[in-house]
Model the fold of this input.
Amino acid sequence: MSSHWQTFYETQAKPDNYDEQMKLVRSFVQSHLDQKVALISSGGTTVPMEHNTVRFVDNFSAGTRGSVSTEYFLENGYAVVFLYRWKSLEPYSRHLQGSQILDSLDVIQGDVIVKEESKSKLLQIITKYQKVENENRLLRVPFTSLFDYLWFLRGICTELAAFGPKCLLYLAAAVSDFYIPSEQMVEHKIQSGGGPLSITLQLVPKMLVPVTTSWVPHAYVISFKLETDENLLVQKARKALDTYKHKLVIGNMLQTRKSRVVLVTQTEEKEIILSSEELKKGGEIEQRIVEDVIRRHEQYLADR
Done:
């Protein structure tokens, strides 16, 4: 299995901006070695079908889990490397998506003003954002394709190894299970004139193997499992724990992912459920998830 992931990096080119981004990661790491740090991955990964990419395979992830969770980790004192899909949701700015920002503003006598009913919410968001920015506790690293994501995952993990058990990995990105190797991709746009298209996708190497054994062996590693069949959820979470030897799997069903999750360890299954009343009041299940995860991380540090 290890040779499979090694072969992936030997055959797939790194992102054009890889060296530039990793320089920023190293600087960020050096600034926060005395703190707890979280690597949070977020959003979906595209699988290109051509080198000059026009068509690609994608998934529905908007980056909600990762972006929301990032805010709660920051509120609890963590420094965060936010590895996110470009143009997916980001912490703080997620509150002002689409028409939300326009609905918060008004024009009076030629001046743009914030509506009175929006001021308290905007003030709270901006205050939190500016505090994090002033403390330099959030580094954003964007990716688009599966290849970008996996290159940055390895590079960032390697740098974060210096934190030892103070490092937490919260791998919430929806990573594709399949891809087209570079040597099998055509150079230019696939033409529809050629008739029906048939492609063969290869399995993506399971990178949790090197994550837990080589790159950040002392980190507290959390993975996520999304299913549509309730009967498979805990079963597959336990299989992942047995296979990759990490600390925690957070499982959720597609239909109820915003209101219910199950936290699975080798010895425990714990549900977190948000009621319909809590959801109506703007409650976010990620707050409860992060509180629980931080408690587990603190216990992990105490045990070591």
Observations:
- The chain has a mean pLDDT of 91.
- The CA atoms of residues 190 and 197 lie 9 Å apart.
- The longest strand covers residues 220-227.
- The longest helix spans residues 116-134.
